[in-house]
Amino acid sequence: MSAPTFPSGSVLGYPRIGPRRELKKAVESFWAGRITADELEATASSLRVAAAKRLVDLGLDATSGAVPGSFSYYDQVLDVVALLGAVPSRFASLTDEKGALDLAGYFTVARGAGEDAPLEMTKWFDTNYHYLVPEIGPETPVRLADDRVVRQFVEARDAGVVTRPVVVGPVTFLALSKASDDAPAGYSPLSRLADVLPVYVELLRALAAAGAPWVQLDEPALVSDSVDVPAAEVHAAVTEAYRVLASELAVGTERPAILVGAPFGGLVGPGEDGLDGLALLAATDVEAISLDLVKGAVPAGPVAGLADKTVVAGVIDGHNVWRADLAAKLDVLDAVHALGAGAVTVGTSTSLLHVPHDVEDEDWTNGSIDVRLRDWLAFADQKVAEVAVLARALTEGRDAVGAEIEAARAAVASRTEASGVVVPAVRERAAALTEGDFSRGDYAERAAAQQAKLNLPLLPTTTIGSFPQTPEIRRARALNVKGELSDADYTAAMQDEIRRVVELQERIGLDVLVHGEPERNDMVQYFAENLDGFAVTANGWVQSYGSRCVRPPILWGDVTRPAPITVDWSTFTASLTEKPVKGMLTGPVTILAWSFVRDDQPLGDTANQVGLALRDEIADLEAAGIGIIQVDEPALRELLPLRRADQAAYLDWSVGSFRLATAGVEAQTQIHTHLCYSEFGEVIGAIDGLDADVTSVEAARSRMEIVPELSEAGYARGIGPGVYDIHSPRVPSTEEVTDLLELAVKSIDPRLVWVNPDCGLKTRRYEETVASLENLVAATNAVRAQL
Ligand code: GLN
Ligand code: ZN
């Protein structure tokens, strides 16, 4: 049997939370015991079928596997754990005799139960989506445990849509896994490839038997040379995997045709190390390869081995929200023909999981969002339609879609010319920047001036900024948004909250106080709402992890600050206490990382615009008497490019924008930053480069490991290694915190050490917050007494 033809237009995946977050609500209802597993299954089933039909309505073919079957109840990596029954031993009792997890068990592996910690969560390549990290050891069971993939194919088929099941590929699955706790030192999960492949073989056989023409195996490990597994090992594993899955099974009878997805960047190589991801895939017997042609360039062709394959050209951006210039995309498609593939079809660069459902889900009439954006944006549904138009251009010629091409051109042009997209004053200010705008004076002088002004004790205690966001705070904000609580009453309610938080910190005996951030819905959205050049949506939800969704702001124009944002809150707070109050801002890199960002200029230029707006805010805070200002950059590491070759340029502009934001202050004004992780790796030099006077980091779980690392790397400014983990409600004992602090002061000059929790307290309850902070202060006093 010969391979089926790949459909001319397709997408690598589609959002699964539902247009109104129906899946989120159903899953959370199930967790709360309000609905049964059967009811959850029924809701999910109707969402899947509706999504498949919607994709057909938007122009994907219903019969040939153009519609991706990319549903997940929680996470696509966890789905492979479930497929293989490869659960860590602590969850073994959740599986049945075949190794299968029921829905409740599946969620337990994701979320933990009692003392049994869930799988760890980490970022999926360069997105804000978080996957669950599988734990694989020599003893981890691996067999075909679950038939959801096949059942979901049959379900759609019975509803009239022949889908293309999407599964994380075996190499990427293992490359992203970590060694289980019981594995010997240096153990590589990839060594289980030979056990995992037979399960994929069985799955492919079952899909073929059910009539699936295509299956998509995603192997983004191929675009990164910074996953923990060296690229050469990834490549060897890919060759072996697709020998077993593609060459050894007959297409059509024993397996569906295989599309290998390679989202999030260009394939590695051809490079000096002799690695070339495209040549590698071309040499396998898979039938189709998708390329990310948004992040990656069109490789130089022709490529041997492609003549009998389809290249799915990922020209539509699955990871950002802008409407495409279709004519330009057709030019890219023309260039792809030079690769010498048997066929070229149209696709997305990544799954559409990373963008909201539908631009038309916004209310464009009530003034809450700039109506011009309606024509500039493409969310998932609009992108599917774009793919369908480009596919028609390929099959019927450009003229067949002349009107659509012209409409796209006009939309893109209107965005270029629209007021606010380019603000001359912003451009002039950026053009006039000099080296000096990015640097502060000598640190030793700054430190002396700051100490003279602030007169802080040894081991100053503080927090990272937010205090618990109570139900009352959320309720007040919701009422204010609905117009049922006046702005004045809302402000008064927040000021009451700040008063409570200040009194609490004074009572506990902290040295540097914060206002607690009650007025912020989110550390990025709050600033987006208060800066020009940003839009915020009402319905633009994107899955972050599990049932958790975020609404990233959209940065569409030149960024300006119409008025001071935080100054009143900070000065109000300062008026309540004699202690120093720390102003609190979100840094430019984090604002970019957690927004959808304009694609018409280099990210570094956009970051500098945000940096300048923050610089003005910092100047106003300083002028208002706020002597300590913290600029949070928890996402600094998150935006780090996947390819090492791109990392230096990134660190250059990202660190630069932070320095631009912070370098305008006097020596005596103390700049803090906060980073949300403890594994610095590639960014350790950048931490120093930020030139903040004090840097707070997560450190409790790694037992202060970061302190000697920083010290050895030559870092010699203030450091606040987190002394307790805020991700858990557990209250750390005074002894525990004392222990950690002793470790810290042993490995760096104690005069540099600050004492603070790992991160903000907004997700915690007051009960544990108060107890934990009391112990933090007691431990600090104990260690001070020894110094
Ligand atoms: N200042 C913020 C807070 O305390 C920092 C949050 C973060 O690092 N993610 O909540
Ligand atoms: Zn943090």
UniProtKB/TrEMBL annotation:
Domain Cobalamin-independent methionine synthase MetE N-terminal: start-end pairs: 10-337
Pathway: Amino-acid biosynthesis; L-methionine biosynthesis via de novo pathway; L-methionine from L-homocysteine (MetE route): step 1/1
Protein name as catalogued: 5-methyltetrahydropteroyltriglutamate--homocysteine methyltransferase
SUPFAM superfamilies cross-referenced by the UniProt entry: UROD/MetE-like (SSF51726)
Similarity section: Belongs to the vitamin-B12 independent methionine synthase family.
Cofactor(s) recorded in Swiss-Prot or TrEMBL: Zn(2+)
Gene Ontology MF terms in the entry: 5-methyltetrahydropteroyltriglutamate-homocysteine S-methyltransferase activity; zinc ion binding
Record function comment: Catalyzes the transfer of a methyl group from 5-methyltetrahydrofolate to homocysteine resulting in methionine formation.
E.C. number: 2.1.1.14
HAMAP family: Meth_synth
Positions bound to Zn(2+): H674, C676, E698, C759
InterPro entries: Cbl-indep_Met_Synth_N, Cobalamin-indep_Met_synthase, Met_Synth_C/arc, UROD/MetE-like_sf
Residues engaged in binding 5-methyltetrahydropteroyltri-L-glutamate: R21, E22, L23, K24, K123, N128, R548, C549, W594, E638
Source taxon at top rank: Bacteria
Positions with a binding annotation for Zn(2+) 1: H674, C676, E698, C759
Location of the active site: H727 (proton donor)
Binding site for L-homocysteine: I464, G465, S466, E517, D632
Keywords attached to this entry: Amino-acid biosynthesis, Metal-binding, Methionine biosynthesis, Methyltransferase, Repeat, Transferase, Zinc
Positions that bind L-methionine: I464, G465, S466, E517, D632
Annotated NCBIfam families: met_syn_B12ind, PRK05222.1
GO biological process, one term: methionine biosynthetic process
Bound cofactor: record note: Binds 1 zinc ion per subunit. Binds 2 Zn(2+) ions per subunit.
Domain Cobalamin-independent methionine synthase MetE C-terminal/archaeal: 459-781
Catalytic activity of the protein: 5-methyltetrahydropteroyltri-L-glutamate + L-homocysteine = tetrahydropteroyltri-L-glutamate + L-methionine
